[in-house]
């Protein structure tokens, strides 16, 4: 200790500058953390659902909605897909069909339900006088999917992918404003009704986004299980009856 003081004197520290000694070994207060910009290793958590909601709500036309979806960069599926599959059919319609996600053919052509399942869908609805090509709103169809980009190897949609694209689907329904919705299969039911169980739910009118909604078997399921076409036929007649009761 004495040596230390002598050394300080030698260095010119020959007077005390404070009245009270300072204990330099006492615990120093935590320095305030500066806000640091996120780095690549530590990316900022992005609220993709909030971004999607804001973008979707700002769209005041179908064209603007399509553009907003084209610009949306937070869904990883976009990077694996060839293109956005937005919709097909007539926007002036009474019936809006919601499928799951594009497959290979849809990814190539940029339209929903253009492969084998789509051909069956067209055939089914033609039996009740509805077609995506009909310019007459009374006979028209409008078709879209929960996800606008093809999932790799046609895997099931992930809940986070559905959650971030759902605001766009909700806005899509508002802009088309159909009289009825038809949800094709479990994934469309999960997105629009928050639950699955198509075998029990099909054929029963439900409600989603303020619209009557009928769950139906997905046409791809019908291709694998043709026996279920009988139920699908009954469901088509349900749609027809609903439209004629609410002319
Ligand atoms: N299956 C779907 O759910 N949607 C399509 O567009 C094609 C197949």
Describe, in plain words, how this protein is organized in 3D.
With about 250 residues, the protein is of the alpha/beta class. The chain has a single domain, classed as Uracil-DNA glycosylase-like domain (Uracil-DNA Glycosylase, subunit E). The chain is built from 11 helices and 6 strands. Strands 1-3-2-4-6-5 form a 6-stranded mixed β-sheet, with helices on both faces. A hairpin with a 2-residue loop joins strand 5 and strand 6. Helix 2 packs antiparallel against helix 3. The longest helix has 18 residues, at about 160-175. It is elongated and about 105 Å long. The site of uracil has 13 residues, from helix 6. Uracil (URA) binds near residues 99, 113, 117, 118 and 145.
């Amino acid at each position: 200790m004495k040596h230390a003081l002598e050394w300080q004197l030698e260095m010119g520290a020959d007077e005390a500058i404070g009245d009270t000694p300072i204990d330099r070994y006492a615990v120093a207060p935590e320095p305030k953390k500066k806000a640091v910009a996120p780095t690549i290793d530590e990316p900022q958590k992005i609220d993709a659902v909030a971004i999607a909601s804001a973008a979707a709500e700002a769209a005041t036309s179908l064209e603007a909605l399509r553009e907003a979806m084209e610009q949306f960069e937070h869904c990883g599926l976009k990077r694996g897909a060839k293109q956005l599959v937005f919709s097909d059919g007539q926007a002036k319609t009474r019936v809006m069909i919601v499928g799951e996600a594009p497959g290979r053919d849809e990814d190539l052509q940029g339209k929903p339900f253009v492969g084998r399942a789509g051909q069956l869908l067209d055939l089914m609805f033609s039996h009740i006088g509805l077609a995506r090509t009909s310019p007459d709103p009374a006979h028209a169809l409008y078709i879209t999917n929960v996800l606008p980009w093809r999932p790799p190897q046609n895997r099931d949609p992930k809940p986070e992918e559905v959650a971030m694209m759902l605001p766009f689907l909700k806005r899509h329904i508002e802009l088309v404003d159909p009289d009825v919705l038809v949800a094709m299969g479990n994934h469309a039911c999960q997105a629009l009704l928050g639950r699955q169980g198509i075998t029990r739910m099909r054929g029963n009118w439900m409600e989603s986004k303020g619209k009557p909604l009928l769950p139906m078997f997905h046409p791809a399921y019908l291709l694998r299980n043709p026996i279920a076409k009988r139920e699908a036929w009954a469901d088509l007649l349900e749609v027809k009856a609903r439209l004629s009761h609410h002319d």
